[in-house]
Specification:
The protein has 169 residues and is of the alpha/beta class. The chain contains 6 helices and 4 strands.
């Protein structure tokens, strides 16, 4: 949660008066527990959504979920399974996999898939395939020159994610 991608997106959201709640999955940073293979982390995500919605400052009808890299692979099934609470989903540099393709095909929530052309984890062809296979409504962005870490492209990324949530929530 303390990396350039999460921090830049969160700061951009807050500047637009959108609440940004960042959290670590179990076993990361100071969080208790241990790695749960992506399944237990979905439970962490659901708990985080429950907590943020319980806060009086939060409009429970306008909740979006963003995930970066592994976090995107967790956010996708968590958001799509949360039929009533999560209204929009931003997937940043989500790694490619058959499970992700299957979930993208069936998830009809508004979603943003955003990748860089120089991503060393997700080649542009795989990113484009995920964008093509995703169910509507969807927005696919391929940012020229950005890699998986987004160094030097944080403001472009944060602007795209913020605009998406402003439009969809």
């Amino acid at each position: 949660m303390d990396n350039n991608v999460i921090l830049s997106v969160s700061l951009a959201l807050v500047k637009k008066s959108i609440i940004a709640f960042m959290f670590n999955f179990r076993g990361v940073g100071g969080s208790q527990g241990s790695f749960g293979g992506g399944i237990a982390e979905q439970e962490d995500t659901a708990a985080a959504v429950s907590w943020i919605i319980s806060q009086p400052e939060t409009d429970g009808n306008r909740v979006g979920l963003a995930g970066y890299s592994f976090g995107a692979t967790v956010a996708l099934p968590a958001a799509c399974a949360d039929v009533d609470r999560v209204k929009a989903l931003a997937l940043i540099s989500m790694p490619y996999g058959k499970s992700q393709i299957s979930q993208l095909k069936s998830c009809t929530k508004p979603k943003l898939l955003i990748h860089g052309t120089n991503d060393f984890v997700v080649p542009p062809e795989q990113a484009q395939l995920m964008g093509k296979e995703a169910a509507e409504p969807k927005q696919f962005e391929l940012i020229s020159g950005a890699d998986h870490i987004w160094w030097g492209f944080e403001s472009v990324l944060a602007g795209k994610v913020t605009t998406f949530f402003e439009q969809k929530l």
